[in-house]
Amino acid sequence: MPAAAAILMLAFAASRLTGLARGIAVGFAFGTSPELDAYLAANRVADLIYQIAIGGAVGAAFIPVFSTYLTANDRAGAWRLLSTLMTISVIALAPICLVIGILAEDVMRVAGGFDDDQRRLAAELLRPQLLSPIFFAIGTFATSALNTRGAFLVPSLAPSLYNLGIIFGALALAPFIGIRGLAIGAAIGALLYAGIQIPSLRVFGPIGRPVLDLTHAGVRQVGRLMAPRVLGLAVSQINFVVIIILASPLPGAIAALDYAWLLMMLPLGLFAMAIANALFPSIAEQAARAEWSAVGASVRSALSAVLYLVLPAALGLALLAEPIVATLLERGAFVEGSARLTATALRFYALGLVGQSIVEIVARGFYARQDTRRPVIVATLAVAVNVALAFPLREALGHGGLALALSLSSVAEAIGLIVLARHRMPGVVSGKLVASLARVLVGIIAMGGMAALLPGAIAWHGHADSEIDRIARLLILVAGGGATYLVATILARAREPIWLAHRLRARMR
Fold first, then answer.
1. Structure confidence at residue 51 (pLDDT)
2. How far apart are CA 52 and CA 237, in angstroms?
3. Torsion from C-alpha of 227, 231, 232, 237, nearest 10 degrees
4. By the 8 A CB rule, do 32 and 341 touch?
């Protein structure tokens, strides 16, 4: 129904907007302070536990198995599978989080190059956040189960509640207990993330009755599928560990990199991740029928659409880094120096936006073929690139070098997946994709030419203007660049605007 589809789209956009609001609230309260660096390092450790243990592996392993039980109308078997996996995740994570909480100071000594006071603060901020991996594990299984059944609204609201928990910590708790309010807010947000979804699980079975059926065939099958994906996630998290360790001696660097990553995630999430999530069910069905040419064609179409959207976004982030950061974040404790640090990181992150987007799309093609081994190998090589580049680039460019190293590793990962995809998914790389990129290049050149005519506007820093002036001038720059790009690509006969319009119309039906 159109109304339901519209609500889902609004909920997805809300998760991105509340993420931005979270950054604004945190920036207003803490800027790029050493206390915020300590919080973000602790938050990364908690997230690392979740990502390695559960993370994105659930979607690649749990959903295909769970859907087979629902397709066979075996609701009892589906519920035992879901409940057992949720129970196992809690049993496995609880002692891990307890031990890390006891050894928090030693963990933060390894995870960051802080002085003694900052390390003790990071350890204190880590302990309440160690509840988050458990709540996120429960919430992730709930999201996957509900999405498999076709229920998207409640799961799509869950990330917004997590963001609201942190916003509550920044605005309501921090004035009284300082940076500790953020740690408590993050734990509250994780609880809300799981809590909003649990009541909806009644459709599968009785809530509050954990099951531990280790003999369940589906449990063993999920375990086999998750193993390589978990390894891949563990390898990919090394990137962020390296950033934390190398950025921690640089004042404000961790915070600036985090703000910049949040801003880069807006186009990555709205364009690449959204299209990738919409693509996966259809190519999984094509792969199940062994329609490999159709899989390749679907991935190519999605890849063309994503590149059409993210290439101008990457150029816009690079050219307008200072106005974007100043307009969105520069207020309260987030001062001009914080804005400069964040804008530098954002420019270098923007260089990797295209690579990150390609990985989102092409990796889905491998997962549809139940091939998690090749993406893991490519991700491992990309991590090696990041680690090798991070040290020299930090010396040359400071925290911007760390962002550049991650961007270059993303490009390397994208190239590796594309090379492998040529053999696994016929038709992904073809003359049609090259022609599409050529038309996009026409739009990029036109957009860059328009920017060259406004050098003063591009170099503008909004701290001297009123709030309304900042927003108005940024909107004019973004709208002007976007309109120039759209007109130029339409004149070049780009097909992506029509493809995207058809997809949007189909989702609204």
1. 81
2. 8
3. 140
4. yes
Distance CA 272, CA 269 (A): 6
Phi, psi of 459 (to 5 degrees): -85, 0
Burial (Cβ within 10 Å: 0-12, 13-18, ≥19) of residue 333: middle
Does 5 score more than 70 pLDDT?
no
Task: At 430, list the tokens.
Answer: 């073809």
Q: Per-residue confidence at 130, pLDDT binned at 50, 70, 90?
A: very high
Indicate the length of the chain as a whole number. 509
CA distance to 307, 308, 361, 462, per residue, from 304 (Å) = 5, 6, 10, 35
CB atoms within 10 A of CB 74: 14
Of 29 and 425, more confident: 29
**High-pLDDT (> 70) share of the chain, %:** 90
- Of 37, 21, 31, nearest to 335 by C-alpha is 31
Residue with tokens 């679907």: 298
The token pair at 93 is 């994570």
User: Each residue of 12-34: b (16+ CB within 10 Å) or e?
Assistant: bebbbebbbbbbbbbbbbbbbbb
Contact 463, 336 (CB under 8 A): yes
Q: How confident is the model at residue 507 (pLDDT cuts 50, 70, 90)?
A: low
3-class DSSP string for 98-125: HHHHHCHHHHHHHHCCCCHHHHHHHHHH
CB 161 within 8 A of CB 169: no
- What would the two tokens of residue 434 be? 């090259």
C-alpha–C-alpha distance, residues 471 and 174, integer Å: 27
Burial 397-426 (b: 16+ CB within 10 A, else e): ebbbbbbbbbbbbbbbbbebbbebbeebbb
